[in-house]
Design brief:
This protein is an alpha/beta fold. The protein has one domain. About 15% of the residues lie in helices and about 30% in strands. The protein contains 4 helices and 17 strands. This is Lipoprotein. Keywords: Signal. It comes from Enterococcus aquimarinus.
């Protein structure tokens, strides 16, 4: 888990981030919110999050997250052999179900709480949301406890098989099915009141 995961297709982003950092445009992770590359899906910069930064340098960001515009890289990052946090830098389309699996801890610290994050947006150094991205998949299957999705849009259904599933500012264009009542009871589908929405049905399968 502590091994640095280097993604070839994110090399350009990393180099640009290093350059921007020297100009005082620091790339930040804010409790799982990532300032990454840009897309065409911009939101108003007045949208912000109060969460404090957990990585103040570009090096910290690169070594603690999987950052990519590649569906394959993000799928691997969310697997049982992946990272505690993954961040998209563009819209992502998956032909097969996307599975979030494995147990991970906040900031990859085994002594910290169990926590898993996916960022579908970019932000500036004041935590204002700049761009949101869309993740499209037949289904997102959540097997990791305390998995949180930050902003952006998930287009497809979500199946939750673990406690602590949360959405922060995320739009879900699909249904959410919890396989146990306890998973539904422990979920927060609009954490921090950031306007997360679900267009489909929210049900319990059992």
């Amino acid at each position: 888990m502590s091994e640095v995961k280097k993604q070839k297709n994110c090399g350009g982003f990393i180099m640009k981030s290093l350059k921007f950092a020297t100009l005082a445009t620091t790339v930040l992770l804010s409790g799982g919110l990532l300032a990454a590359c840009s897309s065409d899906n911009a939101t108003e910069s007045s949208t912000s999050t109060p969460e404090s930064s957990v990585a103040s340098t570009t090096e910290d960001v690169v070594t603690s997250a999987s950052i990519s515009d590649s569906p394959e890289v993000i799928a691997n990052a969310l697997s049982a052999d992946g990272t505690w946090i993954a961040a998209a830098t563009a819209d992502l389309t998956f032909d097969q179900d996307l599975v979030v699996d494995g147990e991970f801890h906040d900031k990859d610290d085994a002594s910290a709480a169990i926590y898993r994050k996916l960022a579908l947006h970019t932000q500036d150094d004041k935590f204002n949301i700049l761009e949101n991205f869309t993740l499209t998949a037949p289904k997102v299957i959540v097997n990791s406890e305390n998995f949180t999705v930050f902003y952006g849009t998930i287009k497809g259904d979500i199946e939750v098989n673990a406690n602590g599933f949360s959405l922060i500012g995320t739009k879900v264009d699909g249904n959410i099915t919890f396989t146990k009542e306890e998973y539904k009871e422990s979920a927060d589908l609009d954490k921090d009141g950031k306007g997360a929405t679900v267009t489909g049905e929210i049900t319990v399968a059992e």
